[in-house]
Amino acid sequence: LLYGLVLVLSYGLLLQGCGIGMLYLTIFAAARLYQLMPYGFSFGIMVCLVILSGILAVLQDARYLALLGIVGGFLAPVLMSTGSGSHVVLFSYYALLNIGIAGIAWYKAWRELNLVGFIFTFGIASLWGGRYYQPHYFSTSEPFLIFFFLCYVFIAVLFASRQPVNLKGYVDGTLVFGLPIVTFGLQYGLVRDLPYGMAISALALGVFYILLATIISRRKAETYRLLAEAFLAFGVVFGSLAIPL
Known about the structure:
Elements (H helix, E strand, L loop, with lengths): L1 H32 L5 H22 L2 H18 L6 H21 L3 H22 L5 H24 L11 H19 L5 H23 L1 H21 L4
Helix pairs in contact: 1-2, 1-3, 2-3, 2-4, 3-4, 3-5, 4-5, 4-6, 5-6, 5-7, 6-7, 7-8, 8-9
């Protein structure tokens, strides 16, 4: 009886995931292929679908349902892109998706969801930067890079604190170590034409990581010990790197 109940629940989650996926495809086809829906309206519906899938996933403890919703959310503007849209609108939408991921991370330690968000956010940002970035976009691009960086630092801290008792303090190495490297690489693309741009960026990252390591180590030494050590190491590395730069 228990096995049958598990099968029924799994089948129900599969139906929900397929339903959300079909809705994404239907909206995409109606807006992009057949021009039956305005882009703004269809975009708004996709945002609602992302929120709905997140709520359903948390309530039902279904991480793969959340994954499907987030993947669909990140792919929606890519599928609907005409090449003439505003990067501010694109990154504002991705900021909304990442706030949703952070909201789910507040309740659930779902590593897969965090990694998907991280890969899509910084992967698409890198592709956009390599193809479209111009120096006069700095003032409208730098705030988003800072926001995404802070968002995933927050998610990494939440992940370390939301583990089961036997895994308390376990860190997501991909986020903890990959985030500053990717962010620093993207920052280079933004400030490479500014005098001492990389030196100031390295110093700012070093100070941020040292302060963050100090703050979290004072709260719960055991839970955050490994995370604090990693942050402190990055603080020293970036602080030292500022000198030759």
